[in-house]
Amino acid sequence: MKSSSFSADVLDVVRLIPYGRVTTYGAIAAYLGSKRSSRTVGWILNSTKGISDVPAHRVVNRNGLLTGKKHFKSLTTMSKLLINEGVNVENDLVVDFKQLFWDPNLALSLTS
DNA sequence: ACACTGACCACTG
DNA sequence: CCAGTGGCCAGTG
């Protein structure tokens, strides 16, 4: 292990995700720019797994599907965390995902 | 330097 | 609807 720094941007955005909200890999990648792609966000979170500072459970794929649940301690950890925050999860899918979706592009930018 | 892999996304058949 | 393929970027052997 060594790498670090590179993920700073991604981790920063993930930490900013409000309680009870979720976002997607693509949204984060889009916010950071074309430098990183959705996949890049994924491998970064892989490095963050185990770090409480980063609510990776709030990051899902573009379908609102908990694709990363398998990387958590348990397959139910991710869904439990979300449900605990008030996010309804059914069949590993975030209910009303579009309503709970938190877009960093809208939240972090936009002066008005 | 090369090949393979991966918490993705989109297109094509 | 499901399977396959390409593109994307970085890590590891």
Description:
With 112 residues, the chain is mainly alpha-helical. It has one domain: Winged helix-like DNA-binding domain superfamily/Winged helix DNA-binding domain (Arc Repressor Mutant, subunit A), CATH 1.10.10.10. Helices cover 39% and strands 7% of the residues. It has 6 helices and 4 strands. The strands form 2 sheets. It has a two-stranded parallel sheet with strand order 1-2. The protein has a two-stranded antiparallel ribbon with strand order 3-4. It is globular. The termini are far apart. The structure holds a DNA duplex (13 and 13 nucleotides).
Summarize the structure.
With 112 residues, the protein is mainly alpha-helical. The chain has helices at residues 8-16, 25-32, 38-48, 77-84, 97-100, 104-107; strands at residues 23-24, 59-60, 89-90, 93-94.
Keywords:
globular; disordered N terminus; Arc Repressor Mutant, subunit A; 112 residues; DNA-binding; mainly alpha; two-stranded antiparallel ribbon
Element-by-element helix/strand order? HEHHEHEEHH
Write down the domain tally.
1
Strand order, main sheet: write it out: 1-2
Counting copies of identical and different chains, the oligomeric state is: single chain
**Content of β-strand:** 5-15%
The major sheet is characterized as: 2 strands, parallel
* Strand-pairing-aware structural class: mainly alpha
Query: How many strand segments?
Result: 4
CATH architecture: Orthogonal Bundle
